[in-house]
Fold:
Amino acid sequence: MDKLIEVRGLKTYFYTEDGIVRAVDGVDYVIEREKTLGIVGESGCGKSVTALTIMGLVEIPPGKIEAGEILFHRGDQVIDLAKLKPKGREMRAIRGNEIAMIFQEPMTSLNPVYTIGNQIMEAIILHQQRKKKEAKTKAIEMLRAVGISLPEQRVNEYPHQLSGGMRQRAMIAMAMSCNPSLLIADEPTTALDVTIQAQVLELMNALRVEFHASIQFITHDLGVIAGMADDVVVMYLGRIVEASSVREIFHNGKHPYTRGLMNSIPSLAATKRRLEPIEGVVPDPFDVPPGCGFEPRCPQAMEICRTKMPELKDVAAGHATACWLYE
Ligand code: SF4
Structure:
């Protein structure tokens, strides 16, 4: 296995006036070089906080990396990102350069008062020490690579002059402009129309291959993962409840939460099948159940589930789940 990122026992907590939120509570996963890992779960499951922790973007305080390692394999070097100072020189050199991130809503990352070109050029000048003219040529090249027509003209336009899909493409161009080894995409297509969504997913796949990058793809939609990821981890209440290859999870998903997510994916083939939403809501993060976090919503809950937390255990080669049904 050619590892790029190894997350080991990661815990990111938030210390608030109302109590402690264990947003990420002991998470382990590996992202292989030139592969895509999908992280799936509902809002509040910790998938975005995991990404922000890798990027050194968790606000400290109230946030704190309580435990764990984020091992970044760079050639022969292994750097523990969890040990770096978020605003320190080393982390700033990695963030946006070797590890880049795109978000659901490009307008939260694009500055409305600067042209698209200037914003792409800024990263290239900062991280790659290129001259302004060279950076502009590279910005145009990147806009072309992400399928934006008339890139020589678009490079001088402002974010509000582009459509939602174009802005997301511009964000991807900015993120990929320094040729990162890891692109973290946090719900990058959720705000887009379905047809544009498919184009952006296809584009990301193509760029991953072209730039020899890996992707950590975060989504609440297991359906999106199917065509996008090699491996998948399903998160619930800050923990991983299931992890396997995408193929295995779709054919042999074990955890009742994973199966609930699958039953809520619309299918064109099965037009008569009723969609079955997962009943109930994610528990209050200040009042997490003592046993399995999914127990209040689980149709198969047993007595032990109320009091004891199941550990993530292998159920097959490369397939693990945290559920008492498989103990
Ligand atoms: Fe359901 Fe129990 Fe499994 Fe949790 S451990 S998912 S409550 S069966």
In short: DSSP finds eleven helices and twelve strands in the chain.
